[in-house]
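Field reference: sequence -> structure
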Amino acid sequence: MPAFVKFEVSKELTEKTYEIIELAKQSGKIRKGANEVTKIVERGQAKLVVMAADVQPEEILMHMPVLCEEKGTPYAYVPSKQELGAAAGLEVPTATIAVLDAGKGKAALDELVKMLAELKK
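Structure field:
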């Protein structure tokens, strides 16, 4: 497990996370890429940050969990940057995604945030 990953996410939570990203992409608003997501978190606009655990070099995302905790932004991990990119509608992998508006996935997002809070306890 990479050094920046602070907790494990189950297969069920991973699938729910991808589902929320797909719904947000269709009916809400997302941002992609480490630089863009960092700006969104710093501005306090992110409802959820999702990071791929297979990012190389790890330093690309080392700051993200700390920044999210400082700003009170929920965050999750998924195993694959390729799958994360696909869920976001990209043809290329992406290291991280920020959900600004979950759109039709709002209820699922609220549920995921509660589950993530339990994981961190």
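Note: The CA atoms of residues 16 and 97 lie 14 Å apart.
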